[in-house]
């Protein structure tokens, strides 16, 4: 078995021995769907029941913000959470600053919700990473709708202040394919009279559209033109939401089992919404052996069990419309590429520079430290695979996806890796390292 230790200063020490990964795992609930279930539940009339919720730092931030806004949310657990909604437009003015922690989704979607709470004042902040992330992408179209929002750096960085206003519908051509931008505008549009239209250059994840329809909003989607239209105002009714496992968390095991010889893992109950399965398309193109079993629809979202066996991977090219379909999986795909034969080219991914860390720089720097041949480009990476990696001291930059990606690289490196600041993994996958200890 690999030796995996967690030191008191949040370092993961990983000494691998090539042990195959075998077994059946259930990854935690989808983060995007969990945020949305809490938010729509808080705004809806009546009670929302959520099964399978992700209990991670980011979803705890969303729950804390909506509790501060007056919603009654039971203790968070993956089994059964109830949200007593306040009804549309009835969120309360909180007595203190709302803190979104590390979560971009919480802050950006909240901006859309709060902008429309007429007459109430809100202040919003987050951790150092979130305070450095761009908010203008959401603030600019909300200002066009008539919102009043103030913030640092020309209203583009948190802390932000919002004074809720009656809003006007707009037609917005988003310059970026971003589910966070689209969702923030849809949440604002729920409160406005008339049709709000949002068009994106490529399709981003559509969990908001699916869940809003289920909660009773009048919304239509034109897939061919990547356009969503919402007719406001909406009356949302509390629903039951069964959250599937997060394919972005499953991605670490898909890559781990692919690159670790003689491995076979079954990942049960994983969300396979086509706006999220870019990771599968790329791994298949690289030669991965992954099959979908028991495909089904669960409260409006496609779900399957994923079986993955080790395979010889080869390099590929990733760019264009694929990027929003695998935006959070690029760090772990870079690890797959480092173990593949030939070159992998990643392009059109400049967005990664404004995630929890600058993920292009972070991936290039840390994999280079292990001996990988990685070139950092302005909008992507070139990775020459097949160069053996060695364990060393590695940094996560406080980024959950970096911590877990580096752990999978370490599992197939020689010597010992020390992954510092690894507790960041709790943002989206608190049980990750325990599961790793059990199966590696
Ligand atoms: O809407 C969401 O839940 C998310 C959308 C994506 O961000 P962008 O929409 O900004 O690309 C993704 O990176 C993030 O982890 C979650
Ligand atoms: C980018 C991410 O999340 P967020 O934008 O919500 O912080 C992520 O989970 O990788």
If you had to describe this structure to a student in words, what would you say it looks like?
It contains 15 helices and 24 strands. Helices cover 31% and strands 26% of the residues. The mean pLDDT is 98. The site of shikimate-3-phosphate (S3P) has 11 residues, from helix 7.
**Level-1 CATH class name of the largest domain:** Alpha Beta
The residue ranges in which pLDDT falls below 50 over 5 or more consecutive positions are none
The level of helicity is 25-40%
Describe the oligomeric state of these chains in a short phrase: single chain
Q: State the domain count.
A: 2
Shape: globular
Q: Could you name the CATH topology of the largest domain? A: UDP-n-acetylglucosamine1-carboxyvinyl-transferase, Chain
Instruction: Give the number of DSSP strands.
Output: 24
As a whole number of angstroms, the C-alpha radius of gyration is 21 Å
Largest sheet properties: 4 strands, mixed
Helical stretch count?
A: 15
On the 0-100 scale, what is the average pLDDT? 98
Structural class: alpha/beta
């Amino acid at each position: 078995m690999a030796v995996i230790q967690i030191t008191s200063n949040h370092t993961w020490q990983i000494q691998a021995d090539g042990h195959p990964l075998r077994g059946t795992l259930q990854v935690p609930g989808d983060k995007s769907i969990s945020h949305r279930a809490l938010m729509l539940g808080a705004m809806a009339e009546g009670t929302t029941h959520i099964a399978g919720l992700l209990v991670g730092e980011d979803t705890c931030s969303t729950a804390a913000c909506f509790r501060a806004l007056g919603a009654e949310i039971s203790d968070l657990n993956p089994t059964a959470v109830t949200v007593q909604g306040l009804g549309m437009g009835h969120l309360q003015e909180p007595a203190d600053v709302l803190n979104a922690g590390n979560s971009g989704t919480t802050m950006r979607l909240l901006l859309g919700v709060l902008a429309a709470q007429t007459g109430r004042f809100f202040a919003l902040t987050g951790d150092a990473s979130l305070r450095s992330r761009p908010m203008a992408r959401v603030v600019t179209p909300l200002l066009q709708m008539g919102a009043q929002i103030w913030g640092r750096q020309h209203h583009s960085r948190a802390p932000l202040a919002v004074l809720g206003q009656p809003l006007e519908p707009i037609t917005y051509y988003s310059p970026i394919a971003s589910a966070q931008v689209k969702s923030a505008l849809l949440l604002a549009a729920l409160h406005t009279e008339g049709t709000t239209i949002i068009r994106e250059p490529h399709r981003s994840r559509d969990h908001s559209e699916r869940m809003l329809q289920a909660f009773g909003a009048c919304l239509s989607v034109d897939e061919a033109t990547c356009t969503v239209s919402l007719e406001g105002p909406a009356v949302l009714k509390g629903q039951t939401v069964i959250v599937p496992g997060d394919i972005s968390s499953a991605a670490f095991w898909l890559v781990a089992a692919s690159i670790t010889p003689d491995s076979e893992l079954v990942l049960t109950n994983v969300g396979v919404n086509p706006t999220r399965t870019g990771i599968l398309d790329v791994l298949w193109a690289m030669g991965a052996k992954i099959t979908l079993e028991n495909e089904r629809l669960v409260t409006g979202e496609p779900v399957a069990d994923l079986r993955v066996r080790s395979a010889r991977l080869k390099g590929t090219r990733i760019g264009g419309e694929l990027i929003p379909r695998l935006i959070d999986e690029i760090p772990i795909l870079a690890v797959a590429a480092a173990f593949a034969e030939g070159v992998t080219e990643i392009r059109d991914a400049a967005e990664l520079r404004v995630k929890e860390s600058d993920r292009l720089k972070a991936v290039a720097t840390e994999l280079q430290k292990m001996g990988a041949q990685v070139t950092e480009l302005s909008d992507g990476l070139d990775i020459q695979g097949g160069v053996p990696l060695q364990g060393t001291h590695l940094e996560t930059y406080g980024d959950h996806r970096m911590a877990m990606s580096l752990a999978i690289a370490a599992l197939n490196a020689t010597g010992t890796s020390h992954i510092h600041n690894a507790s960041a993994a709790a943002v989206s996958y608190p049980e990750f390292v325990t599961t790793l200890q059990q199966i590696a």
